[in-house]
Amino acid sequence: MPDPVVVTVILFALLCIPVWLAGSSHPRPRRRHGRDYGAMAEIEENDIGQMIEGINERRRRSGRPEIGDELAEELRRRSRTPDR
Length: 84
Fold this sequence. Notes:
Strand content: under 5%
Mean pLDDT: 83
Number of strands: 0
Number of helices: 3
């Protein structure tokens, strides 16, 4: 009668070899490490405009000027007042 440890090792090897062979036949794509600057630029291009539009919508509903209008008015006031 064969030793139970030897039988267990053989069965384990018979189960692991096909899994190992199947995994090695499909190369995995290389993962890029670091930041994806293209995706970040695309997100900024869309999201920042949407955020500003949302803020401006809230300001319009409350009767306040839009962000760009408020900044332009502040710049005009600063340019009119002399420096101290």
